[in-house]
# Entry
Amino acid sequence: MKLIDPWEVKEVKDYNKLMKELGVSDFLQYSKKLKDSPLEIKRGLVLGHKDFSKIHEAISKKKKFAILTGLMPSGVFHFGHMSVINQVTYYQKLGAKIYLLAADLEAQLTRNIQEKKARKIAIEEYLLNYFALGLKKKNLEFYFQTIGPKKFKEYTNISKLASAKTNFNEVKNIYGDITPQKLISALTQTADIIYPQLEGIKTTLTPIGFDQLPHANFARDIASRMGFDLPAFTFHKLIPGLQGPTTKMSSSKPESYIGFNDDEKTVRNKINKYAFSGGQATLAEHKKHGGNPDVDVSFIWLKYLFEHNDKKLEKIELDYRSGKLLTGELKAILIERINSFLKQHNQKREKARKEIDKFTQFQ
# Structure
């Protein structure tokens, strides 16, 4: 299989094959065990894991565990970013300490986004929306890679010492051809993933997309050689972009996403114009043969982001497959759900502004 490039996000066509080839375990047993989980877990968006048994034990026995997650401050916050933070807030409610880093250093190294702009995006686009989506300041440590966490000296030393625990052949086997900037970025990410253990929390989890699997493998290899416990990971599929089930949402392509700042008219226009349909070419054919919700972006978004009622989702799916529900009607359902969600979210976001006041000093 071709190497996965974690800096060029591409949809994986065969997740089961990828999991088998790269040693990722099926997450299904845990998605059934976890109670009151978000749609991402409940509906199978989270497909795989490495060492999640340690996290499940910590949850079951109320032991200390931590979630390490990062945000890439590269553009507007959109619904493609929501799947990770929904998982993070869920584990925070279960008692996890959250370590949240803004990858402003990586943004400079790999995306040529200057530090000041990266910090502004991190706070005003991501952090603000995270708090509105349910993240709490209690049991949370937030930091920028360029500034570092509380134990700054130990944190910076990890990435330097980690470089002595690998070699160019291993790096090439994991990443392929890699630039010096990306290598530094990978070593810094390893330091981020290991950091909670410096504060005495040995059981850690990082929820990531399958595109980030090379970073997970690299971090686990380095952690074991440095005497740390192996960090656990869960792997989720990517929420597809508007233009089809194998496309991705990109902040540089407004036609690929719905942003959290999009107004009602923009949402309606984008869904009607760009949302890929699983319907038939004509009304008569659709009523006769029905649509395919498996490739229809409106249905996929409802399934993983908006429709929490299983029976309602099942009815939508059956009606669409039978041809009773038309493509335009399915899009109308999604438009209503998105605009209703954003209306409530905007109110929560205004209340959350006071939560980020202490972070504006870094801009």
